[in-house]
Design goal:
Layout: E1 6-7, E2 12-15, H1 21-29, H2 31-34, H3 45-54, E3 65-73, E4 76-86, E5 91-98, H4 107-120, E6 127-132, H5 137-145, E7 149-160, E8 163-173, H6 174-178
Parallel strand pairs: 5-6
Antiparallel strand pairs: 1-2, 2-3, 3-4, 4-5, 6-8, 7-8
Helix pairs in contact: 1-3
């Protein structure tokens, strides 16, 4: 559906593969990264292997499949962007994580911006959705910078590590994206 790898000023975004395994395990086990995510903690090497093997025959995001894209800086994975495409290629859901040591450098905004630009370049892509914990202000700043519109809060709607938590929903339509400045402004407070 989108051609990978994607490149931005500082990043390469490509399918997560076996060479990313150690980095994936490390940042997914960091309490600061995992705090607002719903993956199981501890996140074992076997879990990472299953994730990577599960998408080994995919070349990128495709309809009815979730993929993890590695976000690389100078060849080292510093995070990922998750992409799920549905509704016969007309809608997508995205998520993102960046290792704590690499947060605050604008990588989340830059990586997600590149993925969004690529998704909306695909004919027929109508809408992209992202959700975040209401307490995750840095993640909300990323979505705001990329032009996402807040659509509402679902109370106690996501079960994370034994607790029901709220979920804020954001969306961006292709028509809204077309009217944006696509420079993906990066500032030091991009900590998602």
């Amino acid at each position: 559906m989108i051609d990978l790898p994607l490149t931005s000023d500082r990043l390469t975004i490509r399918m997560m593969r076996s060479e990313h395994l150690a980095g994936l395990v490390a940042y997914r086990n960091d309490p600061e990264v995992a705090r607002f995510q719903d993956w199981e903690v501890p996140f074992s090497e076997a879990m990472a292997e299953r994730l990577i093997i599960g998408q080994a025959d995919l070349d990128g995001p495709s309809n009815d499949a979730w993929v993890q894209l590695a976000v690389e800086v100078r060849g080292t994975a510093v995070g990922d962007v998750a992409v799920g495409i549905h509704d016969e290629g007309r809608q997508a859901t995205v998520g993102y994580s960046i290792a704590v040591d690499e947060q605050g450098k604008g990588y989340a905004t830059e990586a997600l911006g590149a993925v969004i630009d690529a998704l909306f370049a695909v004919p027929g892509m109508h809408r992209i959705v992202a959700t975040t914990d209401p307490q995750n202000a840095p993640s909300r700043r990323v979505l705001d910078k990329l032009g996402f519109r807040f659509e509402g809060r679902s109370l106690k709607s996501v079960f994370v590590r034994g607790e029901w938590v709220d979920d804020d929903r954001f969306a961006l339509l292709a028509s809204e994206h077309a009217g944006l400045n696509h420079t993906n402004v990066v500032t030091p407070d991009d900590r998602a």
